[in-house]
Fold this sequence. Notes:
This protein is an alpha/beta fold. It has helices at 4-15, 21-27, 47-50, 54-64, 87-101, 131-149, 165-177, 180-185, 187-204, 207-220, 224-248, 266-274, 308-323, 337-349, 383-401, 408-424, 437-440, 448-464, 481-503, 507-526, 534-558, and strands at 39-42, 71-77, 80-85, 115-119, 153-157, 278-281, 284-287, 297-300, 327-333, 358-363, 366-368, 371-372, 433-435.
Amino acid sequence: MINYKDKIVSVLSKNVKEIKETKILSMIETPPNLNMGDFAFPCFGLAKIFRKAPNMIAQDLAEKMELDKIFNRVSTSGGYLNFFIDRRIFASEILNEVINKREKFASSTMGKGKTICVDFSAPNVAKPFHVGHLRSTVIGNSIYRINEFLGYNCVGINHLGDWGTQFGKIIVAYHNWGNKEEIEETPISSLLKLYVKFHDEAKSNAKLEDEARAWFVKMENGDKEALSLWKWFSEETIKELKKIYKRLGVEFDYYTGESFYNDKMDVVIEELTSKGLLKENKGALIVDLDDYDMSPCLVQKTDGSTLYATRDLAAAFYRKKTFNFYKSLYVTDYSQNLHFAQVFKVIDLMGHEWAKDNIHVPFGRVTHEGKRIQTRKGTVVLLDDVLKGAVEKVKEIIKEKNPNLENKETIAEDVGIGAVIFNDLSNSRIKDVSFSWDTAFNFDGETGPYVQYTHARASSVLRRGEEQVDFDFNSEMLSDDITLKVLKEIYEFPNAIKNAQIKSEPSIVTRSIIDIAQAFNRFYNEHQIIVEDKEIRKARLAVVKATKQVLSIGLNLLGIKAPERM
Ligand code: ARG
């Protein structure tokens, strides 16, 4: 596709040799309104070099300019040079590109031969899968999809919290208050109930904590009963998790939880020892990180048991050896910033240059109606309830607005879940999100259902415009400002994806498809599409077709379905 800014740089650089091309590129602006052109170059910074007033420089440059035919004209206003693109060429370029490339539009092979590990979701067995884990799941899933779309080979890993002291607590709770059938029926919520009950009871009965610790020690020592309970809790949980992931359209290449590294930590501890990095501290083993302004990384507790960090060290080595990654990403909330900084620093101190390729992708916390989500006190919104609520809500809306819709169930599922995912990916990931039932299900404004509805609207127009839209349209019919706005938003879409990849920031894609949907809806409201005039009709249908294609790609990159009808 034509790169307009590069073309401007190449004509300008012939006359402005004093400034580097990259600098010129960075100076090019998009004017606030179309009277001032499609691109602008400010000449204020050249005044010193040319010893002339900026408006004179702009005029000089305008006169000397040998414009490419992709530009119609260049004008000046004050110290600015304004470039006007040829709208006909632009429309034909962008539309042909989208229509020709179909679902591959904006994709790339830039990542070819490079592997990216994405560690995401990673809920904890016997603790709830709450809206906080939903964030990791949808952000990680979208990052995975975006990277794949740009040609990277992605490995999706679910580092389940399936080992740890909570199992000791659950075993005690199960023995005292548990019920087999209940756990088999609703594993996640039943285990949570036991977890909460344990903490309630432990407040007045300190013995329970000791018993729990003892059970965890048994697990670590390979006790049969302890391990078979642990295995059962984990398996039941994973079964239910897989159902949730299926509804969310999320898949993992590997379910390698913390327990997977039980036999892979010794070598790491040996290497740390042989490199002289371990220090004893009251019987525990630590790596001192004082020089780097961090608290020490705890590798082994006094009782010989290992920790979260030990498992992450083992996981990093395992992943490097197994996948030889180019980058390895970890998607968790920012409360784990220190943890990952410590782990990566330890790998660096061990002398592995790939330490730098491990990247923590932090995101903001989720609060529920203003309160922090806390497992122990039981103030959690279970994901299951959120999804159920969302789908119910959509069903009500369909009943009211479009009761004869075919496939109501499937569409309600796609739209309800899409709304939840979109809500989560709307703000830059580092921001805290306050989860409230009202905003998650607000179907007007900048939401998932709005974009999905726009996609369905475009699909319906295409169904009505009976002729096939192909490359045979007259782009002269598309030179008005409103159409231009749609095409410009589509033109920016590939850049949005690349930026989203670089920054691991799906909200850039979210923003881009909202902008496209808004521009398209204006186009739809202001222009009749299925008109008598065949030339106009065909050209406008091409815009509709391209918009539908791009919205569908964008939704897909976010992990959201794009229904044909709503
Ligand atoms: N299970 C952890 C939690 O819920 C997240 C694990 C993230 N991945 C990792 N490799 N540490 O907080």
